[in-house]
Amino acid sequence: GAVVSQHPSWVICKSGTSVKIECRSLDFQATTMFWYRQFPKQSLMLMATSNEGSKATYEQGVEKDKFLINHASLTLSTLTVTSAHPEDSSFYICSAGGQGETQYFGPGTRLLVL
Amino acid sequence: AQTVTQSQPEMSVQEAETVTLSCTYDTSENNYYLFWYKQPPSRQMILVIRQEAYKQQNATENRFSVNFQKAAKSFSLKISDSQLGDTAMYFCAFMNLNTDKLIFGTGTRLQVFP
Where are the beta strands (DSSP E) in A8-75? Predict the structure, then answer.
């Protein structure tokens, strides 16, 4: 099956710093990548959709200036949490797909902001 | 707007037995895809099975099969010969083919015990 990687797998940072998370499709090219957030024992909440070479589309209630998304190529998308605060602590998951294709998920990134 | 409902927060089954997880959805679209994903304790989202709405035949993948009832908007997952490794959270998801977005249910936590 298709493989999606995420880096880092976990990160601890101080409040006020920025954190970048990378999402890569390793063995296929994805027209679209998706970023989700998951709180403990809850479902996945879609944050934004990114297409290669264009601006990301954010879901209602997601601050685009807080969560910066860059989709530089068909295999790489990055999520930067700017000026992170403790309430940004969560599990962030990316997926790759698009054009009616099945979404394949990365292993997730655990973010803890102190 | 589409919605996905999983009415069973938790289920348990004995090893080697069969269990069925329920999922209903609501949509006005005629063409869409449906998925079951599992999320084990590692939190990696793993594709279990996919069903295209235009196909009348129920999808099967080894021990996993679905009962897709389009008119009733029902999409249940049957796991046969349950194994300890099937212990996970199972999410039902609807894909809007206009946006490629996945809409997830709240999940069913399945415990397989010896």
Answer: 10-13, 19-25, 32-38, 44-51, 57-58, 67-73
Reading the block at residue A99, the tokens are: 């054009």
- In Å, what is the CA distance from B50 to each residue of A73, A100, A111? 27, 12, 30
pLDDT digit string (tens) for chain A, length 114 residues: 689 999 999 999 999 999 999 999 998 888 899 999 999 989 999 999 998 888 899 999 999 999 999 988 889 999 999 999 999 999 999 999 877 889 999 999 999 999
Nearest CA in chain A to B49: A102
CB-based contact B105 A43, cutoff 8 Å = yes
Token pair of A98 as six digits: 């698009």
Residue A114, min C-alpha distance to chain B (Å):
22
